[in-house]
Amino acid sequence: MLAVIGSGFYTIFYSDYFKIKNIEINGNQNIKTGDIQKIAESQFKDSRFLIFKQGNIFFFNKDSLQKKITAKYILDKLIVSKKVPHTLKIELQEKTFFVVWVSRGRLYLLDLNGIVLSEASQELAKSLGIKMEYSKESEKEEKYTNIESKNANIDANITNINANKEPLEEVWGPQLGIEEVKNLPIIYDESNKEVVLKEKMASQELIIFIIELAEKLPLIDIEIVSFRVFGPQDIQVKAVTKEGWEIYFLSTLNLDEQIKRLISILEKEIQEKRNNLEYVDLRFGSQVYYKEK
């Protein structure tokens, strides 16, 4: 009898039969499966109840794994479950990226609520055709040049806040390719406010306003290169057109009304002078101003 009990004890707690051999990961789109798997596997050697290794399906700590994953990624859903005898199941749902946010010579991906979900890689910045310069000594001065020619060779030079330091080997959060972000609005923060990952960078109202601008302006044959804000909490939005002129909006005013006024002044007053236009200012309600170069 003791032999049977001892054998059962050994089988459950120490044999390879209940050792985790399979990790099933479902629902990830931009987060690499291998990255989640490494986080889970790193926990196998940790002890639980002092003497039992978590590589055993019965002693694997699901709550601990959830905390580790959510510490690195922002998710809408995460479920960790165990399937005896040796399978660990991880089901997740990623938050959706809505805009690219540029500040201090770095690119970030924000969700609809303005939360910073991820820092984009330098390779992605090059793919987007963005050349950026940022000087720590002159934080309020920055130059961003968008390269628009499809035939031009992109030579993007991204300078970190401290030019003497090597670029980060890793950037935080899931990494997206050019196909996933090429149609997202690009927003430059001209105040160069420091970005804190996983925290709110801009209001939902501002993000939605810019997304709607990005959708509606092409419908009236105005192609937008990027957007600029004068700070995360500001209500003014500058749209930079591919033609080289700019449009100033106020996010607290009705967008459709502002677009109607834009159409009106372009058709009735500016007309052929559009090629020499510097900006159109829609921030003052029914009073619309424009300036030629």
Helix content: 10-25%
Low-confidence segments, given as residue ranges, are 137-171
**Backbone CA Rg:** 26 Å
Compute the separation of the termini in Å.
Answer: 96 Å
- Broad structural category: alpha/beta
Give a short account of the largest sheet: 9 strands, mixed
Characterization of the model:
- The chain has two domains: 2-94, Ubiquitin-like (UB roll), CATH 3.10.20; 99-292, no CATH class.
- Helix content is 24%, strand content 29%.
- It has helices spanning 2-13, 33-41, 62-72, 122-127, 178-181, 204-216, 255-270, and strands at 22-26, 47-48, 52-53, 75-83, 87-94, 99-103, 106-110, 116-119, 130-134, 142-146, 186-189, 224-229, 236-241, 246-250, 277-284, 287-292.
- The N and C termini lie far apart (96 Å).
- Residues 137-171 have low confidence and may be disordered.
